[in-house]
């Protein structure tokens, strides 16, 4: 699987993360790295998800830069020229996902200056980086999760407004209008972030967006999604806000440990 790793820079740590991250030198840049297949949607990021029960490592990338990702992702990255020296990993500290909730980050291209780290129950520790950028306009899983987080903010231990940032229309499709994920979630009567119908909704959102979607926002406004995807990705890589991150398939990973 070929992902784009998006770098979301930490602005302020949550209280619970402050002690574990004391080990990271002052004045460093620390980034949550989200693995995405949809770089063209990054304008619409409203939060960033982690799994509460996943343990994240803070890994040294260079003297100034550190990444927050799962151990598994860091191990893969070590063999892709992402860290300073090939095959070498330097884990500075660890933080549990639950303790990261509420941290604020600056997400590249997002219309929102600052977004929060929030919990998502369906984040898989065995996929990507264990960090997921939330784009509720175009990802049905994300739309279902943010609406649920806002509805049950107390239960999730967050402030309601953290999950209620404006949802920006980024892509228009003839079938579902300018908020594909919202339209699908409503049409398919999905009312939980764990609804099995989300698998089908995601497939449909991918297809509709890619084959029939047109950009409504940003530098490539008016262009088909199938073209804008690569262009936005290149732009993010050029500005240093993203990099390519490839992942061996599940079988290989389970064999090599
Ligand atoms: C932003 C985004 C915007 C995404 C969108 C999708 C969509 P796939 O298709 O199963 O390979 N993701 C990444 N890592 C994880 C994880 N560890 N656990 C759960 N979800 C994860 O999944 C790739 C997509 O799933 C990634 O792309 C990421 O969300 C999420 F508008 O990033 B995406 C129709 C989907 N739209």
TrEMBL record:
<comment type="similarity">
    <text>Belongs to the class-I aminoacyl-tRNA synthetase family.</text>
</comment>
<protein>
    <recommendedName>
        <fullName>leucine--tRNA ligase</fullName>
    </recommendedName>
</protein>
């Amino acid at each position: 699987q070929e992902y784009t790793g998006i770098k979301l820079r930490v602005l302020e740590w949550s209280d619970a993360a402050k002690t574990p991250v004391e080990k990271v030198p002052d004045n460093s840049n620390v980034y949550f790295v989200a693995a995405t297949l949809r770089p063209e949607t990054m304008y619409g990021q409203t939060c960033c998800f982690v799994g509460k029960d996943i343990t994240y490592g803070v890994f040294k990338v260079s003297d100034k830069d550190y990444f927050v990702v799962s151990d598994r992702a860091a191990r893969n990255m070590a063999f892709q020229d992402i860290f300073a020296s090939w095959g070498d990993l330097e884990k500075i500290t660890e933080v549990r996902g639950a303790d990261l909730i509420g941290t604020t980050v600056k997400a590249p291209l997002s219309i929102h200056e600052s977004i929060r780290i929030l919990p998502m129950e369906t984040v898989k520790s065995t996929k990507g980086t264990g960090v997921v950028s939330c784009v509720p306009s175009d990802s049905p899983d994300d739309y279902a999760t943010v609406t649920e987080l806002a509805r049950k903010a107390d239960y999730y231990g967050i402030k309601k407004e953290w999950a209620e940032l404006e949802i920006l229309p980024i892509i228009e499709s003839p079938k579902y209008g300018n908020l594909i994920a919202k339209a699908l979630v409503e049409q398919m009567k999905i009312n939980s972030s764990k609804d099995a119908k989300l698998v089908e909704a995601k497939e449909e959102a991918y297809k509709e967006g890619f084959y029939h979607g047109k950009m409504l926002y940003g530098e490539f406004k008016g262009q088909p999604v199938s073209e804008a995807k690569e262009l936005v990705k290149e732009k993010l890589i050029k500005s240093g806000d993203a990099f390519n991150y490839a992942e061996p398939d599940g079988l290989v990973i389970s064999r090599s440990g």
